[in-house]
Amino acid sequence: MTMTLTLAELAQITGGELFGDASITVSRVVPMDKARSGDITFLSNPKYAKLLPECQAAVILVKAAQKDLCHTNTIVVDDPYVAFARTVQALDTTPAPATDIAPSAVIAADAVIGRNVAIGANAVIESGAVLEDGVIVGAGCFIGQRAKLGRGTKLWANVSIYHEVVLGESCLVQSGAVIGSDGFGYANEKGEWIKIPQLGTVRIGNRVEIGACTTIDRGALDDTVIEDNVIIDNQLQIAHNVQIGYGTAMAGGTIVAGSTHIGKYCQIGGASVLNGHITIADGVIVTGMAMVMRSIEEKGIYSSGIPLQTNKEWRKTAARVHRIEEMNKRLKALENSELAAKED
């Protein structure tokens, strides 16, 4: 199925001002150098402005400063990348995870099912679960006892929502995610591990997106909490009692240890590791593959790790790192000898 928009409709969707033929129809968004008749493209990175004069797209989404460089229809917007996102949403033809309630779905008699709910094949909805209006549950999903899914929330196939977990409205959870699994809590008695039941749950706000195969553990005593408008990529591990503030974005492969508090509007780069029981201030950016061992108290950009080197260079660097203590002692001895010489 292909969606089609007129340029007039596209201008309304993006909130931009159209310069050109409002009746022209478009159906695809493509890169500027590949765009042809019937296509939409956009300029968000100024370094590609040199391509504008030769662009053959039906329409280009640009800022006002680049309009005169275009030799085709344009829609002038404040932020072309945001306009691109809204355009792709309007043209999206991704099928729903489910479209009705499958006969093979297993639904407890006392589960509360709202209006226009869809539940895919072999999904299990346990006792006391609540699915509000417009919820979509994909094939093979598990919704535990007394769990609650807010209005318009959508789960792709094989998502597991444990007992008493709460998801807000308009959330999106990709396949294979597990929400509410036990946190890693054990006591050790003379070498034997004693499991600590995890008595909290997970509370997720509105408009939260969670990537494929991400795991979010339930709290030990208090809850694990993810606030509104958070986006979480694929294959993250978020441990028990973690709190993530409004509008934070976390890239794939990141690991967050227990009881860490991440502030609002943070950006955590992929494959980063955050130690437990620390606090990350609002607005912090952590670049990819960083190891965060201590709290970050001020907004800013933080990095760690050694950038890629040739193996030969890396071996030299590693050898020098191992000699830091020896070099420090020699430097102190040299400084002391120079100080003694000045005193003489």
UniProtKB/TrEMBL annotation:
SUPFAM superfamilies the UniProt entry points to: Trimeric LpxA-like enzymes (SSF51161)
Residues of the UDP-3-O-[3-hydroxymyristoyl] glucosamine N-acyltransferase non-repeat region domain: 24-89
Listed pathway(s): Bacterial outer membrane biogenesis; LPS lipid A biosynthesis
Name of a matching Pfam family: LpxD
GO biological process: lipid A biosynthetic process
GO cellular component: membrane
Active site: 240
GO molecular function: N-acyltransferase activity; UDP-3-O-[(3R)-3-hydroxyacyl]-glucosamine N-acyltransferase activity
Catalytic activity: a UDP-3-O-[(3R)-3-hydroxyacyl]-alpha-D-glucosamine + a (3R)-hydroxyacyl-[ACP] = a UDP-2-N,3-O-bis[(3R)-3-hydroxyacyl]-alpha-D-glucosamine + holo-[ACP] + H(+)
This enzyme's EC code(s): 2.3.1.191
InterPro entries, sorted: Hexapep (IPR001451), Hexapep_transf_CS (IPR018357), LpxD (IPR007691), Trimer_LpxA-like_sf (IPR011004), UDP_GlcNAc_AcTrfase_non-rep (IPR020573)
Key words of the record: Acyltransferase, Lipid A biosynthesis, Lipid biosynthesis, Lipid metabolism, Repeat, Transferase
Family recorded in the similarity comment: Belongs to the transferase hexapeptide repeat family. LpxD subfamily.
Binding partners and assembly: Homotrimer.
HAMAP family, A to Z: LpxD
Described purpose of this protein according to its UniProt entry: Catalyzes the N-acylation of UDP-3-O-acylglucosamine using 3-hydroxyacyl-ACP as the acyl donor. Is involved in the biosynthesis of lipid A, a phosphorylated glycolipid that anchors the lipopolysaccharide to the outer membrane of the cell.
Protein name: UDP-3-O-acylglucosamine N-acyltransferase
Species this protein is from: Vibrio agarilyticus
